[in-house]
Amino acid sequence: MSVLPTKAVILARGLGTRMRAPHDTPLAPAQSAAADAGMKAMIPVGRPFLDYALSAVADAGFTQVCLVIGPEHQAIRAHYGKTVEPRRLRFSFATQQRALGTADAVLSAAAFVGDESFLVMNSDNLYPAHVLAELRQQPAPALPAFRREGLLRDNQIPVDRIARYALLDVDSEGVLRRIIEKPDPATVAEMAEASVSMNCWLLTPRIFDACRRVPPSPRGELELPLAVQFAIEELGERFTTFPVDASVLDLSERTDIEGVARRVAGLQARL
Questions:
Q1: For residue 145, what is the enclosing H or E element?
Q2: Count of alpha carbons within 13 Å of 44, Cβ hemisphere only?
Q3: Per-residue pLDDT of the chain (271 residues; tens, 9 = 90+)
Q4: 24 CB contacts (<8 Å, ≥6 apart)?
Q5: Is residue 111 classed exposed, middle or buried when 0-12, 13-18 and 19+ CB atoms within 10 A define those classes?
Q6: Where do the structural domains in the chain lie, given as residue ranges?
Q7: What DSSP state is assigned to residue 172?
Q8: Superfamily of domain 7-264
Q9: Taking Cα atoms as reference points, which of 99, 120, 103, 107 lies closest to residue 215?
Q10: Which of 9, 210, 223 is nearest to 112 (CA)?
Q11: pTM for this one?
């Protein structure tokens, strides 16, 4: 019987450009300060948003967490390294010196991962624990394929934002053929029934080779979806998917904060 993975890599290094953008949305002082710093994961919505996401990680059965942060993110290191007293999770940190993209961020956690399969997810998304638990059961590498209808069901993520998410071209056996990052409107229309990636993955250490070798995107970033496509085309990797009809909380912009706070109200965050 194979041993299920226990390690999770949380990408918390982003610059938070959209969150930093000025907007007239009224925020509490602590929320405004975290938003101004671009630290989406630390925006207080009862408690720091990432606490709720990490509680779901623990609910799914993962026990070891590596937070990929920038050298300026001492508030994240202090909170999870000193302030909280976790009972279900053990925390490590990896520093991505420059915000070069998500593929480079994953590569920053190579020492933590070692030779084991591992979960990768965003720090500004709250994924349902049952989805993470099902992903943990999959043979790696794998990813959930989210239906757009499910993501839109609770009206938390705007339609135009979902149109910018990566689309999945999946064969009849659920194997990923292509991932289309930042699709143009014509591609979105052509692939209207395609599932969506929410940057939630179960990966093996073989992804590190792809992260090292993938060329920069047209935006000049080393992006994880492009590293996955490189692994499929150049390294012969086989990524399986499973369909998911569920919503994900997304904390990308200031306008998200009030709605996210309302949806997590009453939730317990047990780390």
A1: strand 142-146
A2: 11
A3: 568 999 999 999 765 566 666 666 777 788 888 887 778 889 999 999 999 999 999 999 999 999 999 888 888 999 998 888 999 999 999 999 998 999 999 999 999 999 999 999 999 999 999 999 999 999 999 999 999 999 998 888 888 888 889 999 999 999 999 999 889 989 988 998 999 999 999 999 999 999 999 999 988 899 999 999 999 999 999 999 999 999 999 998 888 888 899 999 989 999 9
A4: none
A5: exposed
A6: 7-264
A7: T
A8: Spore Coat Polysaccharide Biosynthesis Protein SpsA; Chain A (3.90.550.10)
A9: 103
A10: 9
A11: 0.94
Q: Judge residue 1's burial from the number of C-beta atoms within 10 Å of its C-beta, 0-12 exposed, 13-18 middle, 19 or more buried.
A: exposed
Question: Strands 195-196 and 167-170, how do they pair?
Answer: antiparallel
83 is written with which tokens?
């302030």
Rounded Cα gap, residues 107 and 94, in angstroms: 10
The residue assigned the tokens 């300026």 is 72
